[in-house]
Amino acid sequence: MRLFAAVLPPAEAVAALREAVQPLRDDRLTWTAEAGWHFTLAFMGEVRDDVLPELHARLERAAHRTAPFALRLHGCGHFGDRALWAGAAGELDALRLLADRADAAARRAGVAMEQHRRYTPHLTLARGRHATTPLRPYLDALADFEGTAWQVDTLSLVRSNLPVSGVPGEQPRYETVRAWPLTG
Asked: Which own/partner pairs from 75-81 qualify as long-range (CB within 8 Å, at least 24 positions apart)?
């Protein structure tokens, strides 16, 4: 299974972001579906079935060691000229700690992880169709965005089902495989 650990924003936060993004949607970018809006904490890629029990146990432990914390969608940013994202504000140290714990849980469970680097909280909104698509108008429009605050109280393990139809523009489908309450 292709898996990642994530924080999923609640419906109210998604609705506020939807309202801010809707006037910006155009054909110059490929916009991610709302069902795909999440904060990836640790991307694991393909995970073998025999690793899942240990992974579940370690992620559960990470969730139980982490207290709920406040978060909100805030502003925006980009990775190079290709990806536009919404950022986060609130208890970012707690979010980074949860990301570090999810990464460590996966490594200790035997998942081959990429090199660990400092976590950048982001929720991908769109990708440029071409390297020359200017992101500045979108960045300017979303710079002052302040979303609805919520209490992060769950660590989710999400399966990414990659497109298989070959239809241009088809996006991955995400399904929550397991979720654990934050109880630290």
From this structure: 75/142, 75/143, 75/144, 75/145, 76/125, 76/138, 76/139, 76/142, 76/143, 76/145, 77/122, 77/139, 78/135, 78/139, 81/128, 81/131, 81/132, 81/133, 81/135
Q: How far apart are CA 92 and CA 97, in angstroms?
A: 8
**Nearest Cα to Cα of residue 126 among 13, 36, 12, 16:** 36
Residues in the chain: 184
pTM of the predicted protein model: 0.90
Q: Is 52 helix (H, G, I), strand (E, B) or coil?
A: helix
Ranges of H-type helices in the chain: 11-21, 52-64, 92-109, 136-142
Cα–Cα distance for residue pair 88/18, rounded to 1 Å: 15
pLDDT digits (tens, 9 = 90+) for 36-55: 899 999 999 999 999 999 99
**pLDDT, tens digit (0-9, with 9 covering 90-100), for 62-99:** 999 999 999 999 999 998 878 999 999 999 999 999 99
